[in-house]
Each structure stands twice: as structure tokens, then as C-alpha cells.
Amino acid sequence: MSETMTKKTTVLNLTDEELMNSGNRACSGCGLGLVYRTALKALGKDTVLAVPPSCLTVLQGLYPVAATTLPCVNVTFASTAAAATGVRAAMRATGRDHLNVVAFAGDGGTGDIGIQALSGACERREDIIYICYDNEAYMNTGVQRSGTTPKGVMTTTTPIKGKVQHKKDVPSIVAAHGIDYVATASAAYPLDLYDKVKKAAEMKGGTRYIHVHTPCPPGWGFDTRYTIKIGKLGVTTGLFDLYEIVKGEFSLTGESAKRVGKERTPVSDYFATQSRFKSLAPEVVEEMQAIIDAKWASYTV
Which of 44, 97, 146, 194 could be cross-linked to 92 through a Cys-Cys bond (beta carbons 3.0 to 4.6 Å apart)? Predict the structure, then answer.
């Protein structure tokens, strides 16, 4: 294992290289802006992106005034992983197989509309990195519920009592394919995200998947200055865990690893910060807390 993969990144040794231009079209306080900037730093300039319709296409804009300095293929909603597979084949055929080929999509384009292409790529062990930024709804088209929208959340397509189903566990679905690397990360912990993307880039061969919890001020209903605070609450409550699955071996990482065996913040504190949970019934809060407690009871120090 290389020194890069074992040494933790800090603000002192984080690269100064920027592969995002200074201006972009993201909303104020957008968690995706943090995720994208951090991930590109970890990937480096030898990278080609495949991006479906999403908040990221808005953030990036269009050539010649795009926010990214990297080549990017804009693809159809359902085809992200398949398109990335095609880009990898093209790089191999033209003698540029050293380049990172990265699919970068939202939760709707990953866990719903694009899941068949992602599953196929994982099953075939395609040599791509897939990063899902999960803002828990179809934010780019008006905040419609997605498979990863949590139970009880109010969206434009669940307007009365909120979504009745629990959040789809996409990382576990991907991990069930037996690929070598699956990880979760949070926009609120960019250095943890950086190290995981860096590790995925160094693990050549096979599909590598990273699922990133990404707060969205307008979609979640909070003031733009609280993006990091709310992202951290998602982790400290135990609602969203930071972990890696490396060749089948699961381990908590970062802030989540520090929480094992210790008291966590009540999940009700997290729900209270966002208007999307305003209709959450007390019994649903209790149900969610019980699910989190049962999950964490299975973790050992």
C-alpha cells in the first residue's frame, strides 16, 4: 500500500492544486461545491468525467465558461456508468489507460434511474470510479422525492405527510456486488472524503464506489450558513455513517469511528434543523432513533 493511502490528509499537507475554477452556478451554501472541489483535488488532472443531468451539470456550466478544468462528457440520466465504461474503453484503445475515469452523479441518477448501469459496471468489474453525491432528492428539477429521500421528508411529490418509505441503502446494494472498494463520506468532512477518493484513484482495476452525504440548503430547508453544521449532525447522530468496505472488510472511519461506544447526539436534533422534516410525527422520530440505536449496537470498538 502506498504512503498516500496510509497517511491521513490534514489542512497542512492538502494539495494547493485547484481543478475547479473560481466561479460556478451552484446555490449559495451548496454542499456539492465542497464535494466536487475536494474530489477533484484528490483525483488530479489526469481525469475524465462522465456526468448525467443533475445539479452538477448546473454547477459546472458549459464550455468555454465551465467551472471545471477537466474534460467532461455530459451523458443521459440512465447511462452514467455505461458511458464511463465506454470512456474507459476509449482511453485503453488510444493508449491513455492511465487516466482516471470518474462517473459523478446525484442520488436520483445513481440509486434510481441509473442503478441498472451502475450494477452492470460493478458486475463486470469495470475500471471506473463512481461518486454519488446524495442530497436526498431530485434537487435540480424541483425537489421531488428519490429512493434515498429519508422517511417523513416533505418534497414536492410527497407534500402532505412526507415520504412513507425509508431511505434506500445504495452503498449496501453496491457492496453486494463484491467490488473491492465501497466507501461513504460527507461534505462536512472534506479531508475524510479526500483520502477516500485518493485511495479509490490509486486502486487501479475494478469498480470503486463512494457515496457522499451532501446537504442542500434550498431542498432541505435551512439557512445557507449551516451546511457544515448540519452535515456534521448527520454523522454525530449516527444517522449517516462514515465507513469503508475494502475487499469485503468493513470498518468505520473518521468521526464515526470515534463515536463507537460513546453517546451520540439525538437524531431529533438533526431533524429540528431542517424544514423538510416539519411534519415528522413523534412516532417516526422514535422509530428512526430505534433503528440508529440498533445499528450502532452492532458496532464494536
Answer: 97
Domain count, the chain: 1
Instruction: Give the model's pLDDT for residue 1.
Output: 42
Q: Which three cell numbers stand for residue 128?
A: 471506473
Alpha-helix residue ranges (DSSP H) falling in the chain: 3-6, 31-43, 55-60, 80-93, 107, 115-124, 170-175, 190-202, 217-220, 227-236, 254-259, 267-271, 282-297
188 is in which domain, residue-wise? 3-297
**Half-sphere exposure of residue 67: CA atoms within 13 angstroms, side-chain side:** 19
Share in percent of the chain as helix, strand, coil (round to 5): 40, 15, 45
Question: What span, in angstroms and rounded, lies between the C-alpha atoms of 194 and 208?
Answer: 14
Question: pLDDT digit string (tens) for 249-291?
Answer: 999 999 999 999 999 999 999 999 999 999 999 999 999 999 9
Rounded Cα gap, residues 198 and 175, in angstroms: 19
The confidence score (pLDDT) of residue 6 equals 59
User: All 3 cell numbers of residue 9?
Assistant: 490528509
The three-state secondary structure class of 201 is helix
> What pairing do the DSSP bridges indicate for beta strands 243-246 and 208-213?
unpaired
CATH number of the domain within which 16 lies: 3.40.50.970
Average pLDDT over residues 183-187: 98
